[in-house]
Design goal:
This protein is of the alpha/beta class. It folds into two domains: about 5-250, Peroxisomal Thiolase, Chain A, domain 1 (3-Layer(aba) Sandwich); about 255-405, Peroxisomal Thiolase, Chain A, domain 1, CATH 3.40.47. It has twelve helices and 16 strands. It has helices spanning about 20-30, 55-65, 70-85, 120-130, 145-155, 170-185, 200-210, 240-250, 275-290, 305-320, 330-335, 340-355; strands at about 5-15, 90, 95, 100, 105, 105-110, 160-165, 190-195, 235-240, 255-265, 300, 325-330, 360, 380, 390-395, 400-405. α2 (about 55-65) runs parallel beside α3 (about 70-85). The chain is globular and about 65 Å long. The chain starts with a strand and ends with a strand. About 55% of the residues are buried.
Length: about 400
């Protein structure tokens, strides 16, 4: 029998809230955070709605209690990671709490990102291009992905184990998977896993070049969908194994019962039309949990709003579930696509769905991709008997990951 992995704490920041409570309130109210670009300096400011966190870098630094030069990605990540530790009762004297009942716990941080400090790098190049001897090097020191993890870890006081994952949109789901594996192997006692990404010119220009941005508010899993809206944010979860759970004495209600990843091996930026990677990831997560597809009560879809993604994901779901679909919705209609952060943010939303027996609706859906009545949730739905939830994160490069959560 597999060792259980429990969700002991959670933290989130996105365009719909600066903490978990604000995020959940917005989901319940059907209040999206998408709108015109306010903080990112770009020629596309009037062209594309985005999901910006409602704070300047200076305001985020004040929230974090940081000084000096810090990337927006690191600031968002630290704020969410600190909340997760606070929620787990593992934050003391502005540092992670490592001693519990006289025992020193081994704590690891697995953070994920796609852009890392790209927002700072973009500040370096204008002066550098005019004069190769100019440009402030402090803007490029946080460029690489691992620098974000190191900066967050330094702020938290975590030193035992650091790792960085960058597998596009599945990044933080894979961070959660790796954390679970390390806990099961006895390598660590506690893992703080998740992801963080800030909006940047690089991502906005890149997705625009791919012609998959929506100039209106996105309509994921709608037949008339036009593309995605980019977002930013961070989500982190504190994961513990059974031994640590007993030591902490927490009454944990949700466990990570299964997980799997797979790869389409189809295209650099497109999912396979038949959804092979998506199907294998979902199937693998269910097999690890030891449940049949019929046991799933709800799927938090990857659901970006692009023609390719939603078609591929819906095809994979039909292959796995046949004509017995669970309820499903996509919260990217609230937050936009937060890239490396989406897997962790949506894991948090999925856990709350289980705890509060609620299904958050997809916004702006008029003609659902899956036509069977009630399958695509379009109104807030209070339910009973919900025990198992699947959360999908399918990214560029064919990187497909699914997390399976259950009530304890």
């Amino acid at each position: 029998m597999q060792q259980a992995i429990y969700l002991a704490g959670r933290g989130a920041i996105s365009c719909i809230g600066n903490n978990v409570a604000e995020n959940i309130a917005a989901l319940r109210e059907g209040s999206a955070g998408l709108g015109p670009i306010r903080y990112l300096s770009t020629v596309h400011a009037a062209s594309f709605p985005v999901g910006e966190v409602k704070a300047t870098n200076t305001e985020l630094a004040q929230m974090a209690g940081w000084s000096g030069t810090n990337s927006r990605t690191s600031l968002l990540g630290f704020i969410a990671a600190r909340e997760a530790l606070q929620n787990a009762g593992l934050w003391e004297n502005d540092r992670v709490k490592q001693q519990i009942n006289g025992k020193r716990l081994r704590i690891g941080l697995i953070s994920s990102t796609t852009v890392a400090g790209m927002d700072l790098t973009e500040n370096f190049f204008p002066a550098f291009l005019e004069n190769a001897a100019a440009g402030k090097l402090r803007y490029v020191r946080q460029h690489e992905a691992g620098a974000t993890t190191e900066r967050i870890a330094a702020g938290l006081g975590i030193k035992d184990y650091l790792n960085t994952i960058s597998t596009a949109c599945s990044s933080s789901a894979n961070a959660i998977m790796l954390g679970a594996r390390l806990l099961k192997a006895g390598q660590l006692d506690i893992v703080l896993a998740g992801g963080t990404d800030a909006l940047s010119k690089f991502t906005l220009n890149g997705f625009n070049t791919l012609m998959i941005l929506d100039q209106q508010l996105c309509q994921p899993f709608d037949k008339q969908r036009r593309g995605l809206n980019l977002g930013e944010g961070a989500g982190f979860l504190v994961l513990v194994n059974e031994k640590t759970a007993a030591l902490l004495g927490g009454n944990y209600t949700v466990k990570l019962a299964g997980y799997a990843n797979a790869n389409d091996a189809h295209h650099q930026t497109a999912s396979s039309p038949d959804g092979t990677g998506s199907y294998l990831a979902m199937k693998g997560a269910l097999e690890m949990a030891g449940v049949e597809p019929a046991a799933i009560g709800y799927i938090n879809l990857h659901g970006t709003g692009t023609q390719n993604n939603d078609s591929s994901e819906s095809t994979a779901i039909q292959r796995l579930f046949g004509d017995r679909f669970p309820a499903m919705s996509t919260t990217k209609s609230y937050t936009g696509h937060t890239l490396a952060a989406c897997g962790a943010l949506e894991a948090i939303y999925s856990a709350v769905s289980l705890e509060e027996q609620v299904l958050f609706p997809s916004l702006r859906v008029q003609q659902p991709v899956i036509e069977e009545p009630g399958v695509v949730v379009t109104q807030l739905r209070q339910v009973t008997g919900l025990r198992h939830v699947l959360s999908n994160s399918f990214g560029f490069g064919g990187n497909c990951s699914s997390l399976f959560f259950s009530l304890t």
